[in-house]
Amino acid sequence: RLIEEINVQKKELIGMLAANTAHEIKNPLTAVKGFVELLELSYDKERSNPHFSIVKSELDRINEIVSQFLLLGRPTSIIGEPVEITTVVKDILIFLKYELEHYNIRLISSYPEQPLYTTISSDQLKQILINLIQNAREAIPPDRQGIIEVKVSQQEHIFLSVRDNGEGMTKQTINQLFDTFFTTKANGTGLGLPVTKNIIETNGGTISVESEVHIGTTFIIQLPNKKD
Length: 228
Ligand code: ADP
Ligand code: MG
Known about the structure:
By secondary structure, this protein is of the alpha+beta class. The protein contains 6 helices and 7 strands. About 50% of the residues lie in helices and about 20% in strands. The longest helix is centred in the first third of the chain and has 40 residues, at about 1-40. The chain is globular.
């Protein structure tokens, strides 16, 4: 019990440190990016240096890590107005579908007939779907006809699932999946799933995973139903 308590406190402390540091990094980072862009503009086209694009994309990467950090540190979410989940998911998938087409991946989605309300905000829902669908995309080998399926359904709770036919995961990976900084990718951050889990749990939901090596992976999210 004591260990459990220490772990909770540790998590809160890390979260707070992460969020504060992330916040402090964001402003100077934005300034640096802006000035690099100005600097590039002051060059003639012919003299323009390819190093600029490297600097800019590395800055984008730092920005991405820092943004995830901010989400990780957020302890509780303010319970907002109920949103209708199908409408929000459809909106988000419009632009993700477009991106997936570049990777030759088909995005399939299905929805319940009746409207379903939950208190998770549309920004949070967007972050969750971006993280899960990015992982799904990265798990699909380029020589496979990729399919990602997003499904909204209702039983007692609201279900949202994201399924892919990618490389799947070993038991060992499944066990560490939600650990902060756990990654199997050469340039992964290991922050996508911890952030996703944090958002879902602060909204009173749960996330679980089913996966089989070479066959694919399904993430299953349960969210409280706020209509009743
Ligand atoms: P990152 O994507 O930066 O590695 P994540 O927290 O998003 O960090 O994911 C952690 C790890 O979980 C990944 O490195 C990968 O090994 C595994 N993983 C997550 N989603 C999938 C998926 N859909 N298929 C296979 N492996 C996955
Ligand atoms: Mg990821």
